[in-house]
Each structure stands twice: as structure tokens, then as C-alpha cells.
Write a structure and sequence with these properties.
Layout (H helix, E strand, L loop, with lengths): L9 H20 L4 H18 L2 H17 L3 H14 L3 H13 L4 H14 L3 H14 L3 H13 L3 H14 L5 H17 L3 H14 L4 H13 L3 H8 L2 H4 L3 H14 L3 H19 L1 H13 L5 H14 L3 H18 L8 H7 L17
Length: about 375
């Protein structure tokens, strides 16, 4: 167990984060420098991640884009463009921007960190592992070890991942609970995907102890509770999130919980979540395709839409998880529609679980540099 006294209280940490954002926003209104605008964007992304607030992410992107437009530092602006593209799953654009930033003189170590994230996101795990291990060896901190652990978890090396997650927490020499909170969240999600719900619950409990306002942590803990048949706990966890987050994922969990109770309001809440997902998909189709696909094949009850989104997700990142999502969407659509062997989804079903040629290596321009 992590000693909660090791860190500043979660409430104080979030208050300090918001105070820093308010100060930088004031400076921006008075004519902020490029560096201060970039700092503001980063803090907005952090707060958006912790509070499940898409509006914070939108604001962060706007501030960063505005700063880029005013800057003459080509290398830095290219690097920031790469980060923005990667965050919103525009992976080809992110790759191109990274190589341009490197050519313009941006530090290679920072470039390598972003490139490793892109390799991981698009299923080039072995190449990503080489870079993640080197970065962790060079600077064994919570961020590099946490990133390595998340990769090991995706590679199904769960024992190694757990050891590395623990090492990341041990290496944390800060007093803010925010980095540790994010690592615990990723660790808990990894345990869910590994099928160990008891382990996931214990990790999310630790996260709640140091950062109780972590919205995605509570949302995923509610999912664990549902999977374990603890419907009352799931409702207790998810209900407050509807007031604090604008992410439809939590309304979807709420709808699932209502359905478990046999509450007729489940369909209405699912429709509200569907409308919100479609609005997000219209703005950021790549970023929300996977979550929306999972929603529409479940409580969203639009199996063909789920297949469309799972296909779109598989196209931008050919990973074991994206292939499983597509295969599940196809099976669900076939079961619902009664499509038989040889039907319109048959050729897709065959290929859903097979990696494409692009998954075998890094095929962006300048890959041999």
C-alpha cells in the first residue's frame, strides 16, 4: 500500500493545479510568452485527464495552437504539433511532425519519447520496447518506468509490467499525487484488461486514497464493480461523475448500471450518451472511435455503427486490442442480425484477428534516420 502521507492531499494538489492554470490564463490575457502558453496548455491537459473534462482538452489544444501561430521557433512548434496530433490519435501526422522537428534541431531524447509512444500506439511493440527500455535506463523515473510498464502490459508481459509499475512508484521523488495517480490508473486499467478484477479493484482503491477526484479511476472502478455484480457500489461511484465530467463514457456506465437495476431510464441515458459520442466523433473521429465502438456494441445497441467505428480504429492503429475490438464488433453484429457464414461481414471477420503488414515495422517517412 502507498502511504497517503507521502503526497500532498489530492484536494490541495488539484486546487494548486487550478490556481496555476488561473494565473497562466491571466498572464495569457495580458500577452503571455510562448513558453507560458505552452505551460498553460500542458496543465489544462493534466486537469482534463484527471477530471475527465473534454472542455479542458479543447481549451488546451486551442491555447497551444494559438501559441504555435505566434512563435518563430520552428523546432518547438513542430514538436508541439506532433504532441497534439498524437494525443488525438492522428498518428501519421504526428510521425511526420516528429521527423520534421528532429530535422529542425529539437532534442533527440524528447523526440524519442514521443516516437516510442507512437510506436506503442500503433502496435510496433518490439521497436517501442527498445526505446522505452533505453529511456528508462537513462533516466529511471516515474514517467519513463510507467511508460515502459504500460508497454509491457500491452505486450501481455503482465508480471514484468507489475514489477515495473511498482518500480515507477518507488522512483517517484515528488510530493504531488498527480504523476502517481496517473500511473495507478494505467496500472488498474492494465489489470482489467488482463482479466484480474480483484487486482484492478485494489489498485483503484489505492488511487482513490491519494487522489479521490480522479474521475477516470472512479469510472473504471465502477466498471469493475459492475463486472463483479456489485451494482450498488457501481452506482455510488458513477453517479457523482455525471456532474463533474462531460465525457459520455460515464453516462454510458450509468446507463449500464440502471439496466442492471432494471430501471427503464437506462434507454434514455444510453441515448443521451449516444448523442454525445456522435458529437465527439464529428469533431475528433480518430480519438473516440474505440470507446464509441465499445459503447455502441453494448448499451448503445447499434451494432453496425460499432463495426464501422471498430474498423476505423483498426485502420489507424493495428494492435492486438484493436483487432479484438473489431472481431468482437463483427461477432456481435452477426449475432444481432442473424448473418450466416458467407454474409457481408465474413471477409472482415477473417481478417479482424490478423495483423496487417504495416504492423511489422515503422513505415513512416525517414524511418531509417
Amino acid at each position: 500500500m502507498i502511504d497517503p502521507g507521502r503526497y500532498t492531499s489530492g484536494k490541495i494538489a488539484l486546487a494548486n493545479l487550478s490556481a496555476s492554470i488561473a494565473s497562466l490564463e491571466l498572464g495569457r490575457a495580458e500577452g503571455a510568452t510562448f513558453d507560458r502558453s505552452v505551460a498553460l496548455s500542458k496543465l489544462l491537459f493534466v486537469r482534463g485527464d484527471v477530471l475527465g473534462c473534454i472542455a479542458n482538452h479543447d481549451r488546451a489544444e486551442f491555447v497551444a495552437t494559438e501559441a504555435i501561430a505566434r512563435s518563430s521557433d520552428a523546432a518547438s512548434t513542430l514538436y508541439i504539433r506532433a504532441q497534439l496530433a498524437s494525443r488525438f490519435h492522428r498518428f501519421e501526422e504526428a510521425s511526420e511532425r516528429l521527423y520534421q522537428a528532429l530535422a529542425a534541431g529539437y532534442p533527440r531524447n524528447d523526440i524519442d519519447g514521443e516516437k516510442a509512444a507512437l510506436l506503442q500506439a500503433t502496435g510496433r511493440y518490439e521497436n517501442a520496447l527498445v526505446m522505452r527500455e533505453r529511456l528508462a535506463d537513462d533516466n529511471p523515473g516515474i514517467h519513463t518506468l510507467g511508460a515502459l510498464a504500460s508497454l509491457l502490459a500491452e505486450m501481455n508481459r503482465w508480471t514484468d509490467a507489475e514489477v515495473t509499475y511498482a518500480a515507477g512508484i518507488e522512483a517517484d521523488d515528488g510530493v504531488s499525487p498527480l504523476p502517481c495517480g496517473q500511473l495507478l490508473f494505467e496500472w488498474g486499467v492494465g489489470a482489467m484488461r488482463h482479466g484480474d478484477l480483484d487486482r484492478a479493484e485494489s489498485i483503484f482503491v489505492e488511487l482513490d486514497a491519494i487522489l479521490p477526484a480522479h474521475v477516470p479511476g472512479r469510472g473504471h472502478r465502477a466498471e469493475v464493480a459492475l463486472a463483479r455484480g456489485q451494482v450498488d457500489l457501481a452506482m455510488k461511484l458513477v453517479l457523482p461523475l455525471l456532474e463533474t465530467s462531460d465525457d459520455p463514457e460515464y453516462r454510458a456506465i450509468y446507463a449500464e448500471t440502471l439496466a442492471k437495476f432494471g430501471d427503464s431510464k437506462a434507454a434514455t441515458e444510453a441515448e443521451r450518451a449516444a448523442t454525445a459520442y456522435e458529437l465527439l466523433l464529428a469533431r475528433r473521429p480518430d480519438a473516440y472511435a474505440d470507446h464509441a465502438a465499445a459503447f455502441f456494441m453494448g448499451i448503445g445497441n447499434r451494432p453496425q455503427r460499432a463495426v464501422e467505428l471498430a474498423l476505423a480504429n483498426r485502420k489507424i492503429r493495428d494492435t492486438p486490442r484493436s483487432r479484438r475490438l473489431l472481431a468482437k464488433a463483427l461477432r456481435n453484429a452477426q449475432q444481432v442480425s442473424g448473418v450466416q457464414e458467407g454474409g457481408p461481414y465474413e471477409h472482415l471477420r477473417y481478417h479482424a484477428g490478423k495483423p496487417s503488414a504495416s504492423a511489422q515495422g515503422w513505415h513512416s517517412h525517414g524511418a531509417t534516420r
